[in-house]
């Protein structure tokens, strides 16, 4: 038989053997699912890289090219705004010549007092559309970083145009990454890549390893038989490929079908308010094709390489667990200590990569360490079972003493799930702390007191018209800050002070004392951070027009909640070209961050994806282990006449090791996350919740294992093997 014919025969033999092997159907599903997950994971990473590149290019294309007075054709100014918990950019534009180039995404220049919004910002609500004037048209996709970006171009009215504070430009397009656009308020590429590899890549890699070793005991015996019959390493490899080829090919096909829609249309992602742009996905097409073809080959390589190697002349006697994989026991403490101390010693820009890489390595090594420790207790457990006449304890001890690898495979999914979930929750707590503080302020103060600020010229501000636009009973007070003493003065004339329940101050400022509910709560919040509000008598309009950095406080006489978009619209129309309106205390030390909110949502999405993969891994590995346990314990249950032996063995060989692994994972995660600036209470809460979930999972696995093993044991019949 020539080489090609022999390879074909080996492939067919492997294919036939896959259906009759121990846990054959489980392994078939495992390889199918693992290949699908592996291909999707690689494709997701490539799509993320392409999306970051495309967003950078479009951001560069809309940044202005600065010019001197003689060559300038337009005026340009970017400002920051917010809608809900999202921050975004608003760009004010003004053409200087009829031939001024249009910003990317616009077909025509808006008229004075008009705004062109992105589709996502326009869909945010009718109030947002009116904040910058009359909304006309939408920004085309080529002018946005992504279809989900909040962005606006505004052409100010002639009364509010502040040419002195605008950039003079001759066109658009630069070669460097500008500080403008959605990427400023989202996960950066470096942070995203590390989070993706840790929370999605690691579970996908674990899935491939577990799938390759499902039903390993029976296949290892078959490999030994093939070796005894004279099969070479190459022949055994072709046999293994034939066994795994069909599920791997089907898994790759399923992943390709799943990825295909992103090449045909824009795809919104759940949780994160992000839309994957179809041109960015098409730009990644060569890489996606390589992933669909290359990832299955990597899975097949894992299937081949993870088979036991034949050592000519070597003994076939089992090796004690304590003599195997000792390198893992030595490497684990090095990785654990190096992760925590290395983060402190690394440069600031490298601290996150060092922490992420060290955490991944530490968590990946922990199952092997847990397996070695549990296996080392096996002989003692067996002796104790024999001394007390406990069959379940005796059998479990013998099984655990047989080797650390089965135990490591059994607890790997639970350990890594706990590590990823806990680190994800702790990292999320870093970003939720600030938003929780902002929410607390809003719950306490609401929008009854608003802060209006601008860094642009207010020389022509019309405060009276501003107040009229807000309705009757609404007052605007000027706010000034003394840079030397840090004192904050609120300026208004006597009728306003009396309307707000404040005694009209004399020439000298007086500390604010008022019966007005909203203003009293605002003063209380300022005192909580060491600042005090003072009342001062003065002309509001004059103070606003002459202030170096104008700021106002807006509130109603009756303390009612004000419409933030309406105040913003009126401020843009009568105070300055571009203003910022926030809840009063948020303008000080309680400010929030749109980047933190976005990071929190991305971490939630990635951690959920990773944990879902881990759940499938745990199920697949456990089912395979349970089927083997049932077949092995069939004779024991018959000889002992006790069906409860399955539950006893499951408790000692499954529940106890998994519970130990859960506790070890919680302790290690606590230590590894110490470099994170998370509150100890938040870390303890996250680890307690995840640890409790892990113990509950261990109990369910033990019960499920006993039931599955019992069902498999009932089908056991004596054979001449």
What composes the largest sheet?
Answer: 7 strands, mixed
Q: What shape does the CA trace take? A: elongated
Low-confidence parts lasting 5 or more residues at pLDDT below 50?
Answer: 314-324, 587-593
> Helicity, in percent?
55-70%
Strand order of the largest sheet: 1-7-2-3-6-4-5
Give the CA-CA distance, first to last residue.
31 Å
Structural class estimated from helices and strands: alpha+beta
Number of strands: 16
How many H/I helices?
Answer: 21
Radius of gyration: 33 Å
- Mean pLDDT level: 81
Percent range for β-strand residues: 5-15%
Describe the protein in words.
It is built from 21 helices and 16 strands. The longest helix is centred in the last third of the chain and has 47 residues, at 594-640. The protein is of the alpha+beta class and 721 residues long.
What is the element layout, followed by pairings?
Blueprint: H1 3-20, H2 24-61, E1 64-66, E2 74-83, E3 86-95, E4 114-117, H3 119-122, H4 126-130, E5 134-138, E6 151-155, E7 167-172, H5 189-212, H6 216-228, H7 233-259, E8 267-269, E9 274-276, H8 278-283, H9 285-305, H10 326-345, H11 351-388, H12 391-401, H13 404-445, E10 449-453, H14 463-470, E11 474-481, E12 488-492, H15 494-499, E13 510-511, H16 517-528, E14 533-537, H17 540-546, E15 551-556, H18 564-574, E16 580-583, H19 594-640, H20 645-672, H21 680-714
Parallel strand pairs: 3-6, 4-5, 12-14
Antiparallel strand pairs: 1-7, 2-3, 2-7, 4-6, 8-9, 10-15, 10-16, 11-12, 11-15, 13-14
Helix pairs in contact: 1-2, 1-7, 2-5, 2-7, 2-9, 2-19, 5-9, 5-11, 5-13, 5-19, 7-9, 10-11, 11-12, 11-13, 11-20, 12-20, 13-19, 13-20, 13-21, 14-18, 19-21, 20-21
């Amino acid at each position: 038989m020539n080489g090609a014919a022999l390879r074909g025969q080996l492939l067919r033999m492997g294919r036939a053997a896959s259906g009759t092997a121990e846990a054959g159907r489980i392994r078939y599903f495992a390889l199918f699912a693992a290949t699908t997950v592996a291909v999707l994971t690689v494709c997701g990473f490539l799509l993320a890289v392409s999306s970051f590149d495309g967003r950078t290019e479009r951001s560069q294309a809309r940044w202005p090219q600065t010019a001197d007075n003689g060559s300038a054709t337009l005026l340009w100014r970017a400002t920051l705004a917010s809608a809900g918990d999202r921050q975004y950019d608003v760009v004010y534009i003004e053409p200087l010549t009829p031939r001024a180039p249009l910003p990317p995404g616009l077909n025509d220049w808006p008229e004075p007092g008009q705004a062109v919004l992105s589709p996502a910002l326009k869909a945010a609500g009718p109030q947002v559309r009116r904040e910058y004037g009359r909304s006309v048209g939408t920004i085309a996709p080529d002018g946005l970083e992504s279809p989900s970006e909040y962005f606006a171009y505004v052409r100010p009215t002639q009364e509010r145009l502040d040419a002195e504070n605008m950039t003079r430009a001759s066109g658009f397009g630069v070669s460097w990454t500008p500080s403008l656009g959605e990427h400023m308020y989202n996960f950066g590429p470096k942070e995203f890549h590390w989070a993706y590899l840790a929370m999605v890549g690691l579970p996908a890699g674990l899935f491939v390893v577990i799938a390759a070793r499902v039903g390993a005991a029976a296949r290892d015996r078959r490999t030994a038989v093939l070796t005894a019959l004279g099969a070479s390493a190459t022949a055994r490899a072709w046999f293994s490929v034939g066994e795994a080829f069909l599920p791997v090919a089907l898994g790759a096909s399923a992943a390709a079908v799943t990825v295909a829609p992103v090449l045909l249309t824009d795809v919104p992602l759940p949780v994160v308010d992000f839309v994957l742009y179809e041109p960015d996905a098409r730009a990644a097409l060569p890489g996606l094709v390589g992933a669909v073809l290359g990832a299955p080959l990597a899975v097949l390589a894992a299937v081949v390489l993870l088979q036991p190697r034949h050592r000519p002349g070597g003994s076939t006697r089992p090796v004690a667990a304590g003599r195997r994989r000792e390198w893992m026991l030595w490497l684990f403490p090095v990785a654990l200590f190096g992760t925590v101390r290395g983060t402190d010693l690394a440069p600031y820009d490298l601290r996150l990569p060092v922490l992420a890489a060290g955490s991944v390595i530490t968590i990946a090594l922990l199952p092997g360490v847990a397996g070695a420790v549990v296996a080392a207790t096996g002989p003692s457990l067996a002796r104790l079972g024999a001394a007390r006449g406990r069959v379940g304890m005796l059998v479990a001890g013998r099984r655990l003493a047989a080797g650390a690898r089965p135990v490591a495979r059994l607890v790997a999914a639970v350990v890594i799930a706990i590590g990823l979930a806990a680190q994800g929750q702790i990292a999320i707590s870093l970003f939720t702390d600030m938003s929780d503080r902002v929410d607390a302020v809003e719950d306490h103060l609401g929008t009854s007191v608003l802060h209006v600020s601008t860094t642009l010229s207010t020389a022509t501000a019309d405060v009276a018209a501003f107040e009229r636009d807000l309705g009757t009973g609404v007052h605007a007070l000027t706010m000034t800050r003394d840079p030397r003493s840090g004192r904050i003065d609120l300026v208004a004339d006597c009728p306003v002070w009396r309307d707000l329940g404040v005694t009209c101050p004399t020439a000298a400022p007086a500390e604010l004392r008022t019966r007005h509910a909203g203003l009293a709560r605002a003063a209380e919040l300022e005192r909580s951070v060491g600042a005090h509000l003072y009342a001062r008598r003065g002309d509001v309009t004059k103070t606003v027009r002459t202030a170096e950095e104008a700021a106002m406080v807006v509130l109603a006489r009756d303390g009612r909640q004000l419409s933030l978009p309406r105040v913003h619209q009126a401020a843009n129309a009568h105070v300055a070209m571009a203003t910022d309106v926030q809840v009063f205390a948020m303008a000080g030390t309680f400010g929030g961050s749109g980047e933190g909110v976005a990071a929190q949502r991305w971490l939630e999405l990635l951690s959920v994806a990773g944990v879902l993969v881990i759940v499938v891994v745990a199920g697949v590995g456990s089912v395979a282990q349970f089927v083997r346990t049932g077949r092995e314990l069939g004779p024991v249950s018959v000889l002992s006449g006790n069906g409860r032996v399955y539950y006893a063995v499951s408790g000692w060989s499954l529940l106890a090791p998994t519970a130990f692994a859960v506790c070890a994972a919680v302790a290690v995660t606590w230590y590894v996350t110490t470099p994170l600036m998370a509150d100890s209470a938040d870390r303890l809460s996250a680890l307690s919740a995840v640890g409790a979930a892990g113990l509950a999972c261990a109990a369910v696995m033990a019960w499920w294992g006993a039931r599955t093993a019992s069902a498999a044991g009932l089908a056991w019949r004596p054979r001449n093997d």
